Amino acid sequence: MIWKTILVAFLAVGVLAEYKVSDEQREHVKEMIKNVCKKNNAEDKVDEVVNKIKQFVDCLMGLFDFNTVRQEIEAAKPKGALDEVFKKYCEKSPQLKTCIHDVTAAVSPCLDQSQRERIPYADSATDQLIDFVCYKDGDRIAMFIAEGGPECFRDKASAIESCTTGIKSILSNFDEAKKLKLADQCKKVDELTSCVVKALEECDTPTPGNMAESLFRYIRKDSPCKNI
């Protein structure tokens, strides 16, 4: 489940960087879901899982109209009022956590026993990720925006994608992923962290790189890697 936490982190970054999910990527994810459900004798759950994921997207869009958020951010920048914008949206974090818990519960039947046992950890990890972003009513994310964080991620999108190659190869092959010892998994995460931070350090300000490094450290200290 540590990979799920890392994915959530990149999805959060992707939203800020205006990342677009293609139809091909959606089909790839659906095919992965089919394969996992079939392997665990839950092929009849595929449509239910896919629908739950769609509901999660609807939930997300219901909580946050990203065009409106973008307009509010641009209007707040000249006034130095970004903290007010993010305070408003961080107040919705309990609903967001519920949406995430609902989708992890829906995926549960398609996982093997050991993975199902880790769902509470995954829920806790994503909760803490949201808490990290919304620390002090969103001070961190406000600083990230003010210091050109989204622009930095857009400029370094190719470099970041290259950093994730190893993670993608593991996620696309669950059998291989399960063979990896925890120490090897943690090593992959640490390599990813170093690669991403190094790419972001080439931006005009140090804030995006510093925040990414802090985020990865925050995730790591509450993961199975904390003692490795």
Automatic annotation (TrEMBL):
Listed InterPro entries: DUF1397
Leader sequence range is 1-17
Superkingdom of the organism of origin: Eukaryota
Query: Tell me, what's a Pfam family for it?
Result: DUF1397
- Name the keywords, alphabetized: Signal
| Protein's recorded name | 27k hemolymph protein
Query: Which species does this protein come from?
Result: Danaus plexippus plexippus
